[in-house]
Amino acid sequence: MNPLAERLVKLLQLPEKARLDAAHLSMPIIHRMDYLLTWNCTHLANPVLQKILLEYCNYHSLHVPVICTPEHLIIL
How far does CA 20 lie from the centroid of its chain? Predict the structure, then answer.
Protein backbone atom coordinates (compact mmCIF):
# COMPACT_ATOMS: atom_id res chain seq x y z
CA MET A 1 0.00 0.00 0.00
CA ASN A 2 1.30 3.46 -0.84
CA PRO A 3 2.11 6.02 1.90
CA LEU A 4 -0.88 8.24 1.07
CA ALA A 5 -3.24 5.28 1.41
CA GLU A 6 -1.74 4.51 4.82
CA ARG A 7 -2.32 8.10 5.92
CA LEU A 8 -5.91 7.99 4.62
CA VAL A 9 -6.65 4.85 6.66
CA LYS A 10 -5.63 6.73 9.81
CA LEU A 11 -7.15 10.07 8.85
CA LEU A 12 -10.55 8.63 7.94
CA GLN A 13 -10.39 6.03 10.72
CA LEU A 14 -11.10 3.25 8.27
CA PRO A 15 -11.43 -0.30 9.55
CA GLU A 16 -8.90 -2.93 8.53
CA LYS A 17 -11.30 -4.35 5.94
CA ALA A 18 -11.37 -0.92 4.21
CA ARG A 19 -7.62 -0.63 3.58
CA LEU A 20 -8.19 -1.39 -0.09
CA ASP A 21 -10.69 1.50 -0.22
CA ALA A 22 -7.93 3.85 0.95
CA ALA A 23 -5.66 2.58 -1.83
CA HIS A 24 -8.49 3.09 -4.32
CA LEU A 25 -8.99 6.64 -3.02
CA SER A 26 -5.30 7.51 -3.12
CA MET A 27 -4.91 6.82 -6.85
CA PRO A 28 -7.05 9.69 -8.22
CA ILE A 29 -5.42 12.03 -5.70
CA ILE A 30 -1.89 11.04 -6.74
CA HIS A 31 -2.67 10.97 -10.48
CA ARG A 32 -4.84 14.12 -10.39
CA MET A 33 -7.91 12.41 -11.86
CA ASP A 34 -11.09 14.46 -12.00
CA TYR A 35 -13.49 11.78 -10.73
CA LEU A 36 -13.55 8.69 -8.56
CA LEU A 37 -16.61 6.67 -9.46
CA THR A 38 -17.73 4.22 -6.80
CA TRP A 39 -20.71 2.41 -5.34
CA ASN A 40 -18.99 2.42 -1.96
CA CYS A 41 -21.06 4.93 0.02
CA THR A 42 -19.73 3.70 3.36
CA HIS A 43 -16.07 4.69 2.97
CA LEU A 44 -15.70 6.62 -0.27
CA ALA A 45 -18.85 8.42 -1.45
CA ASN A 46 -19.57 9.48 2.12
CA PRO A 47 -20.11 13.24 2.66
CA VAL A 48 -18.75 13.19 6.23
CA LEU A 49 -15.51 11.50 5.19
CA GLN A 50 -15.27 13.65 2.05
CA LYS A 51 -15.25 16.80 4.18
CA ILE A 52 -12.33 15.43 6.21
CA LEU A 53 -10.55 14.41 3.00
CA LEU A 54 -11.11 17.83 1.41
CA GLU A 55 -9.64 19.62 4.42
CA TYR A 56 -6.64 17.26 4.48
CA CYS A 57 -5.97 17.60 0.75
CA ASN A 58 -6.32 21.37 0.80
CA TYR A 59 -3.96 21.65 3.78
CA HIS A 60 -1.34 19.49 2.01
CA SER A 61 -1.94 21.05 -1.44
CA LEU A 62 -3.15 17.75 -2.88
CA HIS A 63 -5.59 17.31 -5.73
CA VAL A 64 -9.15 16.49 -4.67
CA PRO A 65 -11.20 14.37 -7.11
CA VAL A 66 -14.97 14.47 -7.19
CA ILE A 67 -16.08 11.28 -5.47
CA CYS A 68 -19.49 10.13 -6.58
CA THR A 69 -21.67 7.21 -7.54
CA PRO A 70 -22.44 6.57 -11.22
CA GLU A 71 -25.98 7.79 -10.50
CA HIS A 72 -24.68 11.17 -9.39
CA LEU A 73 -22.40 11.51 -12.37
CA ILE A 74 -25.31 10.99 -14.78
CA ILE A 75 -27.11 13.88 -13.08
CA LEU A 76 -24.03 16.12 -13.36
Answer: 11
